[in-house]
Every structure is written in C-alpha cells, then in structure tokens.
Write a structure and sequence with these properties.
This is RanBP2-type domain-containing protein. It comes from Amphritea balenae. GO terms for molecular function: zinc ion binding. InterPro entries: Znf_RanBP2 (IPR001876), Znf_RanBP2_sf (IPR036443). By secondary structure, the chain is mainly alpha-helical. It is built from eight helices and two strands; from the N terminus they run E-E-H-H-H-H-H-H-H-H. Strands 1-2 form a two-stranded antiparallel sheet. Strand 1 and strand 2 (about 15) form a beta hairpin. The radius of gyration is 24 Å and the shape is elongated.
Length: about 170
C-alpha cells in the first residue's frame, strides 16, 4: 500500500495513504497500462490484442517491397521466384483475413492497383532498363515507395483499422 497521497491513473481522484484501490473507481494503485485499458472499456484490451495479432500476421508483407526492389535492380529471376513463393505462403496463411478484406470494394481496388503498379515497374525494369543502368535504382526506389504507400493505406489508415475491427467482429462471433 502506498504511504503517500496518490492520484488514480484512470479518474485522477486523489486517494489517501494506505489505500491500494481508488476510492472513486476501484482501480489499483499499481495498475499497468493494460489494467487501465481493461478498466476503461471492458473487452477493449482483448480486442486490441487480437487485432494486433492479425496485423502481425500481415507484417511479412513488408519484406516483399525489398525483394521486389532487389529484383528490379538485379533482374535475377531467382529473386522473383522467392517473391512469388513468399507471396503464396502469405496468401495461404492469411486467407481468412484476405477473404474478409476482399468483400470491401476499396480493398480490392487498392490491391489491384498496388500489384498492377508493381508489375508495371518490374516489366519496365526487365524490358527497358539495363542491369547496371542508372534507371534501375530509381525504379527500385519507386517500387519501395509504392509498396510503403499501399501498406500504410491498407493496414494503418483509418479505413484499414476499421477493416481489422470488422474482421475481429466476424471472426469472434
């Protein structure tokens, strides 16, 4: 028990020494951030934890831009094979989420534009830019920027967060 006056981390009520729970709201004096979140909105902590798990399952998609950029710079088909293999594994592992996501037209359009732009960049690199030409680095940089924008829009924007929340609701019925 605290030997001093302390302020509740949730409701800011000032409590007397010797009390280990807030007299106003009942939160522990030693509450962690997780405890405060659980106290504020019951079920919100579990929901956020599960949504974070969904987002972590998608994180390997981050490696795709680097591999695509490497392919664009080097032009080696082996790297393209690794990209395709990684993409197949990720699509398989996240098939339930992706099936849910594809129900939304904006997600479908974003995915199509995202992958079409990457395909165009790879095609331009493969057909028109010499292996060690100056344009290879610029095309690689452009592919990384396109991927970063697509990733942020799909998974970190307000719409992306709403998508994860909706998936949480349907997956946990």
């Amino acid at each position: 028990m605290p030997d001093f006056k302390w302020s509740c981390k949730f409701c800011s009520y000032v409590n007397l020494p010797g009390i280990d729970k807030c007299s106003e709201c009942g939160l522990s004096a030693y509450a962690s951030a997780e405890d405060i979140e659980l106290h504020a909105i019951p079920g919100a902590y579990e929901k956020n934890k599960t949504i974070k798990k969904y987002q972590d399952a998608i994180v390997p998609f981050i490696f795709l831009p680097g591999l695509v950029a490497t392919y664009i710079v080097k032009g080696q088909l082996e790297i393209l094979a690794v990209v395709m293999l990684l993409l197949i594994v990720l699509l398989y592992r996240n098939s339930a989420f992706l099936a849910h996501a594809m129900k939304y037209k904006w997600v479908l359009v974003t995915f199509c534009l995202w992958f079409l732009s990457l395909f165009i960049l790879m095609y331009i690199r493969r057909e028109y830019v010499p292996i060690w030409g100056d344009g290879a680095g610029y095309i690689a940089l452009l592919s990384v920027l396109v991927n970063a924008y697509g990733f942020l829009y799909l998974f970190k924007s307000k719409r992306g967060k709403e998508l994860y929340s909706a998936y949480y609701e349907t997956a946990n019925k």
